[in-house]
Structures are given as structure tokens and as C-alpha cells.
């Protein structure tokens, strides 16, 4: 009975905890049952933790083992605890539950994990912490670390610690010289601390620090501590510049400088513009040169020395080592090009500068290693000697001879450049002796001819070839000759054509000759160079005379015009002179004229006068233009002739009246009047547009006619005839009208035109019955016409 009461009291407490415990029960393969139990339980005991699963309906001897302190027990299928659990003392328990079924003992494991509560205050590992900070340390680089411990579960926020800096004493030279990493507890300098830290101003600082659990939340536990920081000096500074001679013999590597970081262990490295592994640094900060230097490649080096923590984080600003490379005379002077080309005029005087050669030496320009001396060591061809010289210091090449006349056209000079050590190189200079125009051209003959030319010689005939010799360089401008006709060719009958390859000139006939006008030519020629003479002048030897006689040839007649245009009014009386063909014979022979192509014999021409006449009256309407050929023959030699075309235009005269064109007997007009119906009347005038032009239709001046009918022009030759009243009785009407041309005075034709008027329905077609014409017995013929229209 007592056991039952205790059981009932325990069940109430068990149900309170069940909601918590049920969330932490876990079955696994390794532990048959796994539950989580919060530490520091302060409720009623026994504390029922969980109902044991998988128990049979009937069992006996239920026991629990694995608990040396007697904390756990089992009763009525439940696991219970008799006192609170402490995770910091023991975080978990492994219990063995046993029972008997059917005379057989069975068991399974229950693992109890104690769930942490935040019941521990974090504390610093050291009550008083010390550290030192070196000068020149960069901001954010840790120089020490504070550590704290919280006995709560590291995997929960209960042991998630946060560090903070509460105070700094003294607050000089800035109030915030230090910072602490809230997670790691690493202490480092701020921007102000890194830039203003000075051991002479303040060599020791006292920092108040705090550590909190729960990631620093408001309900966190905390504790405080003190950090003493000593400010120490540092040997970290740029080393003195180093001067190294280029091409040092070694052995390598050669130590050249050293740096040192005071304080914590560090690693060094080098950065800068230099070949890889040319400079290296070891753990002690000793800097080595590993290969010879070449000043001409690089005359100085700026090497940045980097100091880092072992984790690769840079802790201070790099310092610089400057290495200067001293020069050794190890470079020969060289010319920028191996060959030069220049010219010198043949009349150049002694001392004339023709070229300056300059060699360069890559040694140090601040030393005598770059002083260069020049020498002329060769000349081809070798003679005459002493034509040129080169200045020893400047490299200026000048003419050494008094004159270059008569020398070779080209010379090749060899120039050397040498430094004080004897290192040298050479180049070649090709000097072309430039010809100058110091010789005038001279004709091979003073007189040419006399030459005979037939009067009928064709244009382009070569009369003769002349030549002038020039002593200057063959093929050059000074050797070329320009020939001119100075006199005797005022009418430009002749021209000169020069062959630039041979310097000869051909005298060419450029116009037709006329013996009767000029039978003799005396031409004066001159020969000059296209460039100015620099010495001497052109004299009589540079001129020549050519004499030419013209031989007479019988020539045919010449007509004054190649084409005649003549106008004649049509209908003029025949026999009138309409044109006179003019011609002359260069030999004053008589000329006979004749016509060719006048097949209808409308024209005649005077045999000796050249007067062109009409033989009969001409009609423009028959032919408005006549074209014929007039032939002029030499009166003594009929094989010599000339011809010209004559075109005769016949001028129009208003000699034709306009006429009506077309058959209108089969056409009709409707009555009652049908809108837009009309007879289109056509007319024609055989005269030209000047007289024909626009043809005018007009009704006779009769009131009845003008009342019944209307003429409406369409264009220059057509007009519309239509009813002018709504209705006319059906019959054939005679409509009188006149057609006039546009001439002044006009010519007219009077017309009486029969016009049939037929009865029509509203559609404009002729009505198909004869009654409409019974009142018009005279219109039987028109009735037949209208009947045909009905059928249509």
C-alpha cells in the first residue's frame, strides 16, 4: 500500500518531465535506448525519466546496473533518478536494464546524456596577463592572446565566449591604441596605435578586458581581467644602400646586407624588379647576391624586404634596400647602323662636311669608359689618297682634297670607333660623288642641211636628227639636254622630240606645208641642260642651224566650208541663186563644180561660178529637206578634187487648207440628249506647225444652228460635236461649220456635215421600232442605219 502511494506521487512528477524527456529519447542500433536529461533538476524525486520500451507483457526481476552512485532505478517499466545530474561532473551514463521472461534473462542498454545548462562563469586562464608590442608593428597584427575557460558544453552557446576591451591606461598618445578580437582574444594595435606608438612617451599600458559567454548576450555570465603591455623598440629599419661592382668574380652567393625583426619569430622575403633568385634572404635576415650583375642591363635595384608571421601575415611595412651597380669597362662602342650613305658634290671645297657618324657605348656615361675616338682606316678605291678625313673626337667626316673633280663616282670608307680600353667596332660609309653641271652641251655640227621636203609631206615626217655632247656624268640631270627652236619656226611648223636615252633630238614636221606660202625654212636650234650651269656659260657651240627647202607639188582645190546649210521658201520661182560654193586652188588652176546625189534634178550649179540654183518650184509637203554633194575638180587634173555637203531646207508656206478627216455617216446622236454623248470630229492640215498648228472649229453664225449644236475642242486637231438642246426630233441634220488654221491670215474650209439623230431609250440605245421615223419619210436610209445599230 505504501509503495502504491509513493508511485502515485512520483507519476505526477514523471508526467511533468515527460514532455521534456520525450523530445530527447532516441533509439539507436548501438544503444537500444538513448535519452537526454537536463542537469540540475530541482523537482520531486524519484524523477521518472522515461518508460522503457520493448518490455514483454509478463516479465520478472527488472533491474538496472552501470550506476556506481545509485542514482538510477527501475520500477513498473519506468526508469527514474533519485537526485540531480551534473554535466560538468559526468556528461553521460550507460545503463544496463535486465529482466526475466520464460526463465530466460534478457537486457538492453539505456544511454543517458546529461543536457547542459549555463551554470558556469567564464574565467581567464591567468589572473594577470602580460605581453609586449614592438615598434613598427602594423595595425591588426596580434602581438599576444588572452585565453579564458568556461566549463559548460563547448558545443552550445553556454561556452561561446566573446572578449572585449574595457579600458586603456594611460590614454596617451591616443585613447584607443589597442583592440582585441572578440572571438580569438588576440590583442593588436589600432590605426592610431600603429602610427603613434612611442616607448619614450609611454612604455607600458594597462588594459582592462572582459570575457562573456552566450556570445556576449545580455543574460551572459562574465568576468574581467588585466593585461599589462610593454612597448619595446625594434631594429626593423631600411639598411644602408649597397654599391656593388658589375661582373664580380664570386664565389656566389655573396652576403651584401642584413635586416632583423625584434620580438616574435618571423619569416623574410624579397620583392622588386629583379630576376628571380638574383637576390635571396635567409631566416636570419641576411641578404645574398647569387649571380653577377650587369650595369648595362640594370644599374640599380630597389628591393622591398617583407617581414611576415609564420602564417604568412605581414606584420610591418616593408623596408627598402637600394643596390647600386658600379660600372666596369666591358662594352665596346657600336654604331647604330653598319652602313651609311651620303653624297658630296664634285665641286666641294676642302673642309666641306659630308656626314657625322656617332657610336654609342653602354658603359656608365658618368665615367671615362664611354669616351670614344674615331679613325679612318680604309678607303676604296685607294687612289687618290687623302680625299677624306674624320675628326678624332666628333666623328665628323670632311673633304680633305682641294677638289673632287676627276675622282671616282663612289668611295667606300671604313671608320672605327674605339674606347680608352681599346674595345672597338667599325662601320662603312659609302660616299657618292654627285656630278654638278659644270659642262655645257656642244652640238656635233654647227650646220645641218640643206634638206628638201615635198610640199605634200605628211605631218610627223622626220627631217633630221641632231645631237649635242655633254661632258658631265652620263645619264644625270647635268648630262640631259633640252633642245629648243630659237628662231625660224614662228608658225610652229616643226617640233623637236628628244630621246632621253641617247640625248639626240629628232626634228619633226608638225604642220602641213604650203609651198605657195613658204618655200624655205632656216631654223636656229639651242641645246641647254635642264639644271642650271654652276660654272661656265652657254656659247656658240651650244647652237646650230638647220636649212630646209620645200619642193612644190600640184595640189587639189580647197573648199571654204565642209558643209553648207541653205533655206528656200516652197513655191518660189525656179532659177534663183540659193547659195554660192567657194573654193580655191593652191596652184591657181581653174576649178570645175558639179552636183552629185540630186537624183530628181531639182537643182543646178554653175560649172565655174559655183552658183547653186533651183530648177523647179519646191513643195515642202512633198519633201522638206534635200541633201546633195558639190564636187570641185582641178581644171587641169580631174583626179584632184574636193567635195562638200549641201543641205537645203524648204520653208513652209500656208498653201493648204485644213480638211475634215473620217467617215461620220454611220454615227448618230441620241434624242432625248444623252449626257456626255458626242461625235469626235478629226481634222488635218498638210502645212507645218507654223501654219497648221491648232485647228479651230466654229459653227456658222446662225441662231438655230448655234442653239441646237455645240462644238467643244479636245486638242489641236479634234473637237466634240454634241446636241446643245435636250431634244431634237429624230432625223438627219446638216450641221454647217468652218475649220480654220492658225496662220495669219488663216486658211479655212467650210463643211456641211450630215448628222443622224436617233430615238434612244434611257440606256442610250436606239429604240427598236419604226414608228419613231414615220414622221420622217425622207430617212429610210437612216432608218436602215439605226436598225443595224439596234442589232448591235
Describe the structure.
One of its GO terms (cellular component) is adherens junction. One of its GO terms (molecular function) is cadherin binding. The chain is mostly beta strands and 792 residues long. A four-stranded mixed sheet has the order 1-7-6-3, with helices on one face. The longest helix has 21 residues, at 2-22.
Sum up the structure in keywords:
792 residues, mainly beta, Immunoglobulin-like, 7 domains, 42% strand, flat, disordered C terminus, Cadherin-like_dom, cell adhesion, calcium
Give a topology summary:
Elements (H helix, E strand, L loop, with lengths): L1 H21 L10 E6 L8 E5 L8 E6 L6 E4 L2 E4 L10 E10 L2 E12 L7 E2 L3 E7 L9 E2 L2 E2 L12 E8 L8 E3 L5 E4 L1 H6 L7 E9 L9 E11 L9 E4 L8 E5 L8 E5 L7 E3 L4 E4 L10 E9 L10 E8 L12 E7 L7 E4 L15 E9 L7 E3 L5 E4 L10 E10 L4 E11 L7 E2 L3 E8 L7 E8 L12 E6 L6 E6 L4 E6 L10 E9 L14 E9 L6 E2 L3 E7 L7 E4 L2 E2 L6 E6 L6 E3 L5 E4 L10 E10 L6 E11 L7 E3 L6 E4 L7 E6 L11 E4 L3 H6 E5 L4 E6 L7 E10 L7 E12 L20 H12 L1
Parallel strand pairs: 1-7, 9-16, 17-23, 24-30, 32-38, 40-47, 49-55
Antiparallel strand pairs: 2-5, 3-6, 4-5, 6-7, 8-11, 10-14, 12-15, 13-14, 15-16, 18-21, 19-22, 20-21, 22-23, 25-28, 26-29, 27-28, 29-30, 31-33, 33-36, 34-37, 35-36, 37-38, 39-42, 41-45, 43-46, 44-45, 46-47, 48-50, 50-53, 51-54, 52-53, 54-55
Amino acid at each position: 500500500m505504501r509503495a502504491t502511494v509513493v508511485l502515485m506521487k512520483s507519476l505526477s512528477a514523471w508526467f511533468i518531465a515527460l514532455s521534456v524527456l520525450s523530445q530527447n529519447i532516441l533509439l539507436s542500433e548501438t544503444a537500444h535506448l538513448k535519452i537526454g536529461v537536463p542537469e540540475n533538476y530541482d523537482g520531486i524525486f524519484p524523477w521518472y525519466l522515461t518508460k522503457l520500451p520493448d518490455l514483454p507483457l509478463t516479465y520478472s526481476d527488472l533491474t538496472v546496473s552501470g550506476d556506481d552512485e545509485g542514482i538510477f532505478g527501475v520500477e513498473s517499466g519506468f526508469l527514474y533518478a533519485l537526485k540531480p545530474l551534473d554535466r560538468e561532473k559526468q556528461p553521460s551514463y550507460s545503463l544496463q536494464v535486465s529482466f526475466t521472461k520464460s526463465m530466460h534473462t534478457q537486457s538492453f542498454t539505456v544511454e543517458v546524456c546529461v543536457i547542459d545548462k549555463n551554470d558556469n562563469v567564464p574565467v581567464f586562464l591567468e589572473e594577470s596577463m602580460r605581453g609586449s608590442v614592438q615598434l613598427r608593428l602594423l595595425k591588426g597584427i596580434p602581438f599576444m592572446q588572452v585565453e579564458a575557460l568556461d566549463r559548460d558544453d563547448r558545443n552550445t552557446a553556454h561556452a561561446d565566449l566573446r572578449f572585449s576591451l574595457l579600458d586603456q591606461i594611460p590614454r596617451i598618445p591616443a585613447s584607443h591604441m589597442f583592440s582585441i578580437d572578440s572571438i580569438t582574444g588576440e590583442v593588436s594595435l589600432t590605426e592610431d596605435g600603429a602610427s603613434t606608438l612611442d616607448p619614450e612617451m609611454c612604455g607600458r599600458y594597462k588594459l582592462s578586458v572582459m570575457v562573456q559567454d552566450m556570445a556576449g548576450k545580455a543574460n551572459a555570465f562574465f568576468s574581467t581581467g588585466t593585461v599589462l603591455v610593454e612597448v619595446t623598440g625594434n631594429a626593423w629599419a631600411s639598411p644602408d644602400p649597397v654599391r656593388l661592382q658589375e661582373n664580380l668574380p664570386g664565389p656566389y652567393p655573396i652576403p651584401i646586407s642584413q635586416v632583423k625583426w625584434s620580438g616574435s619569430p618571423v619569416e623574410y622575403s624579397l620583392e622588386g624588379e629583379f630576376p628571380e633568385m638574383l637576390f635571396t634572404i635567409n631566416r636570419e635576415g641576411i641578404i645574398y647576391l647569387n649571380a653577377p650583375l650587369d650595369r648595362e642591363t640594370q644599374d640599380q635595384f630597389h628591393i622591398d624586404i617583407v617581414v611576415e608571421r609564420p602564417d604568412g601575415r605581414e606584420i610591418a611595412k616593408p623596408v627598402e634596400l637600394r643596390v647600386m651597380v658600379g660600372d666596369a669597362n666591358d662594352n665596346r662602342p657600336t654604331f647604330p647602323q653598319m652602313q651609311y650613305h651620303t653624297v658630296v658634290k664634285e665641286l666641294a671645297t676642302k673642309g666641306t662636311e659630308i656626314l657625322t657618324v656617332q657610336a654609342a657605348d653602354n658603359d656608365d656615361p658618368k665615367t671615362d669608359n664611354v669616351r670614344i675616338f674615331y679613325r679612318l682606316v680604309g678607303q676604296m678605291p685607294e687612289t687618290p689618297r687623302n680625299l677624306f678625313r674624320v675628326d678624332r673626337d666628333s666623328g665628323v667626316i670632311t673633304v680633305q682634297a682641294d677638289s673632287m673633280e676627276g675622282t671616282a663616282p663612289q668611295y667606300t670608307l671604313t671608320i672605327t670607333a674605339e674606347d680608352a680600353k681599346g674595345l672597338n667596332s667599325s662601320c662603312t660609309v659609302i660616299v657618292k660623288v654627285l656630278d654638278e653641271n659644270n659642262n655645257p652641251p656642244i652640238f656635233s655640227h654647227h650646220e645641218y642641211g640643206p634638206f628638201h621636203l615635198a610640199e605634200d609631206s605628211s605631218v610627223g615626217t622626220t627631217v633630221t636628227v641632231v645631237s649635242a655632247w655633254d661632258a658631265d656624268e652620263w645619264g644625270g640631270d647635268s648630262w640631259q639636254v633640252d633642245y629648243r627652236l630659237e628662231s625660224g619656226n614662228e608658225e610652229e611648223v616643226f617640233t623637236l622630240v628628244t630621246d632621253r636615252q641617247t640625248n639626240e633630238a629628232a626634228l619633226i614636221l608638225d604642220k602641213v606645208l604650203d609651198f605657195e606660202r613658204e618655200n624655205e625654212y632656216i631654223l636656229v636650234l639651242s641645246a641647254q641642260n635642264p639644271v642650271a650651269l654652276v660654272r661656265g656659260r652657254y656659247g656658240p657651240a651650244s647652237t646650230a642651224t638647220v636649212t630646209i627647202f620645200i619642193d612644190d607639188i600640184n595640189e587639189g582645190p580647197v573648199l571654204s566650208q565642209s558643209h553648207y546649210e541653205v533655206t528656200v521658201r516652197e513655191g518660189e520661182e525656179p532659177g534663183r541663186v540659193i547659195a554660192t560654193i567657194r573654193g580655191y586652188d593652191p596652184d591657181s588652176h581653174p576649178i570645175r563644180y558639179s552636183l552629185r546625189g540630186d537624183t530628181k534634178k531639182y537643182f543646178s550649179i554653175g560649172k565655174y561660178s559655183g552658183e547653186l540654183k533651183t530648177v523647179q518650184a519646191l513643195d515642202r509637203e512633198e519633201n522638206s529637206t534635200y541633201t546633195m554633194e558639190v564636187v570641185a575638180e582641178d581644171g587641169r587634173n580631174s583626179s584632184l578634187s574636193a567635195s562638200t555637203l549641201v543641205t537645203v531646207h524648204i520653208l513652209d508656206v500656208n498653201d493648204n487648207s485644213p480638211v475634215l478627216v473620217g467617215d461620220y455617216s454611220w454615227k448618230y446622236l441620241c434624242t432625248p440628249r444623252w449626257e456626255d454623248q458626242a461625235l469626235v470630229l478629226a481634222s488635218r492640215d498638210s502645212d507645218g506647225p507654223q501654219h497648221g498648228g491648232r485647228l479651230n472649229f466654229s459653227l456658222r453664225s446662225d441662231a438655230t444652228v448655234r442653239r441646237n449644236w455645240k462644238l467643244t475642242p479636245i486638242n489641236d486637231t479634234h473637237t466634240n460635236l454634241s446636241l446643245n438642246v435636250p431634244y431634237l426630233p429624230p432625223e438627219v441634220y446638216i450641221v454647217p461649220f468652218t475649220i480654220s488654221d492658225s496662220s495669219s491670215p488663216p486658211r479655212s474650209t467650210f463643211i456641211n456635215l450630215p448628222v443622224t439623230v436617233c430615238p434612244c431609250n434611257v440606256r442610250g440605245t436606239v429604240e427598236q421600232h419604226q414608228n419613231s421615223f414615220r414622221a420622217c419619210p425622207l430617212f429610210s436610209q437612216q432608218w436602215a442605219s439605226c436598225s443595224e445599230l439596234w442589232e448591235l
